[in-house]
Write a structure and sequence with these properties.
The complex is a heterodimer of chains A (221) and B (241). Chain A has 8 helices and no strands. With 221 residues, chain A is mainly α. Chain A is flat and about 70 Å long. Chain A starts with 8 loop residues before the first helix and ends with a helix. Chain B has 9 helices and 10 strands. The chains are: A mainly alpha (221), B alpha/beta (241).
């Protein structure tokens, strides 16, 4: 009965490289899904702000579905449900699509709120200078939106980083799934989940610091 | 230069003004004065389609502003520069960047040439030492002068001023009016909504007094300030002078 309630340093030493590799996948999934989510979010935000009821309806429907159902359920539908309509995805594809679509819905609301926070006078100045809608967004409104939404985006990023743990249920190997597999083979929950927790904390702390840096840098104006 | 025919503007059931016919000649400085709510700012904003009229037409240099033809409308409005009461400078850009943005983005002009022209315009409004500052570091008077420079960079034929000094501390009003006076001297066609009677008296070619959406009186500054004809005009001038 070696170990008992004490931690075994050897288990930690052996598990660490596997968990570290899982962490890299976690970071990759997080970054990619937030980037794709931002692109989807900008398009959706503009759709929802459009005066065209049909376009606004499409945007509204998308955010309604993806914010109204659990991400776990969305991942199950994408990975286990789609094959019955002939779409077979790898765990990575399923994970990325599920995370991105989910992220996109939340990013859309963050971005929409940010755009609405930009002073109406900015739009009027652009109109009086002859800007097209596209140029108004690209050169004046969206850059100011980014500064406004950085705290919210940082929040979304941190949330997404932890939500990636859900893809462990669709056989995607990131750090949470690696931890579960190691636990199943060593039966040392304390050590395994302790390091996993440390790795998550390390990742979230790094990203929080990065976002704080950019928030300070942009507050120059 | 500018002509409105039968211009009407309503907000819901409220008629701000209707059937306004105003003409502004090339090089003329028209000053519109009147109490709050008289419709003067709304009228000014109809001239470059920031407010969409409910009836009537606006002509800029003979071209009708037609909302159905977006590109043509943009090209027509480009000739009209506007200076706002709240400046509306691009917060995320420096003074120089604010001034060069429109010619480069809208007219696709060569960046080097725009920079050269911008330097001259910025010097003209007296802000050469501030070119790399962000608007947040400027005083109200400086911000408004940058706003004027930004509009001038597009080489407009007409400049509209919507209460340009109303947000400024009294000591800063003079520097902005000074820039506007120079513009007028250079022959710019200007329509100015303001409460600055001194400016109206010294610089305007024509003054319009608006009240309740109607043009109550119109005339040269001399006639207007020394010999107002209408009772309402006399009451208004007594209150503010």
């Amino acid at each position: 009965m070696l170990g008992g309630t004490r931690m075994d340093i050897n288990v930690i030493k052996n598990a660490f490289p596997v968990l570290l590799e899982g962490s890299l996948m976690t970071i990759e999934l997080t970054v990619l899904s937030v980037v794709f989510g931002t692109v989807i979010g900008i398009v959706t935000a503009l759709l929802k702000l459009s005066k065209n009821k049909f376009m606004a309806g499409i945007g509204g429907f998308y955010t309604w579905i993806f914010r109204g159902t659990p991400m776990l359920l969305q991942l199950f539908v994408i990975y286990y449900g789609l094959p019955s309509v002939g779409v077979n995805l790898s765990p990575f594809q399923g994970a990325l699509i599920g995370l991105s679509l989910n992220s996109g819905a939340y990013m859309a609301e963050i971005i929409r709120g940010g755009i609405l926070s930009v002073d109406k006078g900015q739009f009027e100045a652009c109109k009086s200078l002859g800007f097209t809608f596209f140029d108004t967004m690209k050169r004046v409104v969206l850059p100011q939106t980014f500064k406004i939404i950085i705290p919210s985006v940082g929040n979304e990023f941190i949330t997404m980083l932890k939500d990636t743990s859900l893809v462990s249920v669709i056989a995607m190997e990131e750090v949470m799934r690696s931890a579960q597999i190691l636990y199943a083979s060593t039966f040392r929950p304390l050590e395994i989940f302790f390091i996993t927790a440390c790795l998550y904390l390390l990742m979230t702390t790094i990203f929080t610091t990065v976002f704080s840096y950019y928030e300070k840098k942009l507050s120059v104006y | 230069m500018i002509e409105t025919k039968n211009l009407t503007k309503k907000f819901g059931s409220l008629t701000v003004f209707e059937g306004l016919n105003v003409k502004v000649k090339k090089g003329e400085v028209l000053v519109i004065i009147g109490p709050s709510g008289s419709g003067k700012s709304t009228f000014l904003r109809c001239l470059n389609h920031l407010e969409v009229p409910n009836g009537g037409e606006v002509f800029i240099e003979g071209e009708k502003i037609d909302a159905k033809n977006k590109k043509h409308m943009r090209n027509t409005i480009e000739k009209v520069g506007m200076v706002f009461q709240s400046f509306n400078l691009f917060h995320h850009m420096t003074v120089m960047q604010n001034v060069i943005e429109a010619p480069i983005t809208v007219k696709h002009e060569n960046r080097e040439e725009v920079l050269k022209r911008a330097k001259i315009i910025i010097e003209k409004v007296g802000l050469s030492e501030k070119v790399d500052d962000y608007p947040s570091k400027l005083s109200g008077g400086q911000k408004q002068r940058v706003a004027i420079a930004r509009s001038l960079a597009m080489r407009p034929d007409i400049m509209l001023f919507d209460e340009p000094t109303s947000s400024l501390d009294p000591e800063l009003v003079g520097e902005v009016l000074g820039v506007m006076k120079n513009l007028a001297k250079e022959g710019m066609t200007m329509v100015v909504v303001t409460h600055e009677m001194g400016f109206a008296r010294d610089v305007a070619d024509r003054v319009i007094f608006m009240d309740g959406g109607k043009i109550v009186e119109e005339g040269s500054p001399k006639e207007f300030f020394t010999n107002p004809k209408e009772q309402r005009t006399k009451e208004f001038l007594n209150k503010i002078l």
